[in-house]
Amino acid sequence: MTIERWDDARLDALGTRLEIAANIAESNVRMIQALTNVAVEAREERQQLANTVERIGDRMNAFDIRMDALGAKLEVTANIADSNARVIQALANVAAEAREERQQLFERMERHEAKMEGLRIETARMLDILINQRNQGDNPTN
Predict the structure, then answer these.
(1) C-alpha–C-alpha distance, residues 65 and 68, integer Å
(2) In 3D, which of 63, 93, 111, 102 has the Cα closest to residue 119?
(3) Are 136 and 142 in contact (CB under 8 A)?
(4) Cα angle value 95/101/107 (rounded, 5°)
(5) What is the tens place of the pLDDT at every residue in 47-76?
(6) Dihedral sign (CA 83, 86, 88, 94)
(7) What whole-number distance in Å separates Cα of residue 97 and Cα of residue 15?
(8) What angle do CA 117, 118, 120 make, to 5 degrees?
(9) Band of the pLDDT at 119, cuts 50, 70, 90?
(10) How far apart are CA 120 and CA 128, in angstroms?
(11) Is 22 strand, coil or helix?
(12) CA separation for the pair 39, 45 (Å, rounded)
C-alpha cells in the first residue's frame, strides 16, 4: 500500500467536496421536508375530498328518499286523477241520461197537452151540443 500525502490543495478539494455533499444533503433534507409537507397537505385535501364525497353521498341518499316519496305522491295523484276521470265520465253519462229522460218527458207532456187540448175542444163541442139540445127542448116552437 502506498501512503499518499495530503497536501493543502487536496484537503481543500476534499473540503469543497464535503461542503458540496453537505449542501446536497441539506438540500435533500429541505426537499424531503417540502415533499413531506406536500404529502401532508395532499392527505388533508384527500380527507377533505373524502368528507365532501361522503356529504354528497348523504345528500344523494336524502334526495333519493325525497324522490321516492315524490314518486309515491305522484302515483297517488295519478290514481286520484284516474278516479276523478271515472267519476266525471259517470256524471257525464248520468247527465246525458237525464237530458234524454227530460226530453222524453217534454215529448210526453206535449202529447198529453195535445190530448188535453183535443179533450177540451171535444168537451166544449159536447157542451155546445147539450146546451143547444136543452135550448131546443125549452123552445116549444120546434
Answers:
(1) 5
(2) 111
(3) yes
(4) 140
(5) 999 999 999 999 999 999 999 999 999 999
(6) negative
(7) 118
(8) 60
(9) very high
(10) 12
(11) helix
(12) 10
User: Which amino acid, 43?
Assistant: R
Q: Grid coordinates 446536497 are at which residue? A: 24
Residue 121's pLDDT is 95
Q: How many residues does the chain have?
A: 142
User: How far is Cα 48 from Cα 42, in angstroms, rounded to an integer?
Assistant: 10
Query: Which of 46-55, 110-119, 131-140 has the weakest average pLDDT?
Result: 131-140
Locate 38 and state its grid cell.
406536500
Residue 2 is given by DSSP the state -
Q: How far apart are CA 140 and CA 137, in angstroms?
A: 7
DSSP structural state of residue 140: T
Query: Which residue do the cell numbers 195535445 mark?
Result: 114
